[in-house]
From TrEMBL:
Source taxon at top rank: Bacteria
Protein name: PRK06851 family protein
InterPro entries reported in the protein's UniProt record: P-loop_NTPase (IPR027417)
SUPFAM superfamilies attached to this UniProt entry: P-loop containing nucleoside triphosphate hydrolases
Gene3D superfamilies named among the record's database cross-references: P-loop containing nucleotide triphosphate hydrolases
Length: 360
């Protein structure tokens, strides 16, 4: 078996608040190793070190990226062993009772309590500041979503729903044909991307690099892209195909991509903030604006579209800026914990975990 690497988000800062798809991501996992400890205790470094050690071996690795810390990991799934290594925040208040084994790795054992107590007031203040700023970001994302809804309403009023249904049915028949697959489908829910302190991030190119046929959906807000993806996903599930379902990192109720790896197909919303263009001969564009929206809608509602777009973008910019402020406060908090932390214990624990895993 050759190694497989998939990068995505299992959680996100959204218009619905902090949102996790952990229940789906860890659904098949039988052994979950949970890293506990405050910020700066080495949880992400632990996970990244394990990933680095295993990346050239024949494993199916899934990297769960951290929306609060671009470049950091919240988890690693070793899919071919049904093993996961995750930050405790990813499973907090989630249903993982199906797992046969949950193992807690307490990195906080490496903390010097006396050094922490010296900064107790600062720790409390920074923790409160992070919570307030993050909540403020969620409220601003929600305001941005309301502006986006206004933008959608403009295009929905000019939508040819019969044509949209016809296009969807054409794609369903093209992808699946008439035959059903007689097996229980594997359905996985993930996030396409995330709002981070550095702006919107996604892993579309990485996730689709080995997919033979890619469909780039072009259109406008409210032109039926998410609804079409939901119907394609439902049809795949009903026919017995495995479906990777990628939710919007801004509005988790909306879908941005479907991957059907058994069929070598990926279809995704290729508009801002995750706009890409075909760069392979097999890539294809699906223009839902041209197909399903009344011609001249952009021109007819120029002023209304510009006003709603500005409100949406301004609020998004404000929310990202607030996430950045929260990250600065988190960095200060991490620095306090780091000075009180004995990282040799983290390294020893990581080395033992890896040794045990490789021998299992």
């Amino acid at each position: 078996m050759s190694s497989i690497h998939h990068h995505y988000y299992a959680s996100g800062h959204t218009a619905e608040g902090y949102y996790r798809l952990t229940d789906s991501v860890l659904k098949e996992i039988s052994n979950c190793y949970v890293l506990t400890g405050g910020p700066g205790t080495g949880k992400s470094t632990f996970i990244q070190s394990v990933a680095e050690e295993l990346k050239n071996s024949d494993h199916h690795l899934e990297y769960l990226h951290a929306p609060s810390e671009p470049g950091s990991l919240d988890g690693l799934i070793i899919r071919n062993h049904n093993v996961a290594l995750v930050d405790e925040q990813l499973i907090k208040d989630t249903d993982i009772e199906h797992m046969k084994e949950k193992h807690f790795i307490h990195l906080s054992e490496g903390l010097d309590p006396e050094r922490l107590s010296e900064n107790k007031k600062t720790i409390i203040a920074l923790t409160k500041q992070i919570q307030q700023l993050t909540e403020q970001a969620y409220q601003t994302f929600h305001a941005s979503l309301r502006a986006h809804d206004d933008l959608e309403d403009i295009y929905i009023s000019s939508m040819n729903f019969n044509e949209a249904n016809l296009l969807t049915n054409e794609l369903i028949e093209l992808f699946y044909g008439k035959e059903d697959v007689f097996k229980a489908p594997k359905i996985e829910h993930r996030f396409l991307g995330a709002a981070t302190p550095e702006g919107a991030k996604d892993f579309i190119q990485q996730l689709t690099q080995n997919v033979q046929k890619r469909y780039f959906i072009k259109g406008r807000a409210g032109s039926g892209k998410s609804t079409m993806l939901k119907k394609i996903a439902t049809a795949g599930e009903q026919k017995g195909y495995d479906v990777e379902i990628y939710h919007c990192g801004f509005d988790p109720n909306s879908l941005d991509m479907i991957i059907l790896r058994e069929l070598g197909i990926a279809i995704f919303d290729s508009t801002a903030p995750h706009e890409y263009f075909p760069d392979r001969e097999t890539d294809e564009i699906i223009d839902v604006y041209k197909r399903c929206i009344t011609e001249g809608t952009d021109e007819t509602f120029t002023d209304e579209i510009a006003e709603a777009t500005k409100r949406y973008k301004d609020k998004m910019t404000e929310a990202i800026s607030t996430l950045k402020d929260a990250k600065h406060a988190r960095d200060e908090l991490k620095a306090i914990y780091s000075k009180a932390m004995d990282y040799s214990l983290v390294n020893q624990t990581k080395d033992k975990w890896l040794s045990d895993f490789l021998q299992s």
